[in-house]
UniProtKB/TrEMBL annotation:
It comes from the Bacteria. Residues 19-180 form the Outer membrane protein beta-barrel domain. InterPro entries: Beta-barrel_OMP_2, OMP/PagP_B-barrel. It comes from Aequorivita viscosa. It holds the Pfam family OMP_b-brl_2. The keyword Signal applies. Keywords: Signal. This is Outer membrane protein beta-barrel domain-containing protein. Residues 1-19 form the signal peptide. The keyword Cytoplasm does not apply.
Amino acid sequence: MKKTFLILTTFLGIAVASAQSDKSGFDFGVRGGVNFANITTNDDLGSPESRTNFYAGLVAELPLQERFSLQGEVFYSGQGFERNIPLVANEKIAYTNKADYIQVPLLAKFYIVEGLSIAAGPQFGFKVSEKVAYDSSAVVGSIETDKIQTFDFQGTGGLEYKFDNGLFIQGRYTYGFSDLVKNNDIHTSVFSAGLGYMF
């Protein structure tokens, strides 16, 4: 949590200072939306289903040329996956694996035409919480777990359209190159869609 707080505080301080400086050239804003998070795996987890949750955070864009910018972000991201495990007599138990992160992407952004851009780059995920919720006809509850690695190196990319008033809409896909669980072929896979506003 100390690392998470330091990341958030540092980024917020830089972004606010940049936004207030006439010479900085930075654009500063906020963004949020919905995640459709899942995992890719070759092990015996069966066919996991996506967990729907939200993301929200800050964004700072530094234009370098007319059509090219660098963009940094820091945001909270609810991720994980769901799965159903058959029991006996047509019973099943539903598990929701909840893994929540502070995500820090560093993106190269290219404007195809005015307002419409593509962006891609590395993303650094810092786990802040992890739990498993379970639900069956006999029992409902949740437990804290600590099986997922605390750091996840990912790649992310997507499309964005920014209106003249500063409002923008975007969609992205993120894939994790790190093993989520040590020595297991399990990786992050997240589709996200949302909107934001540049001040």
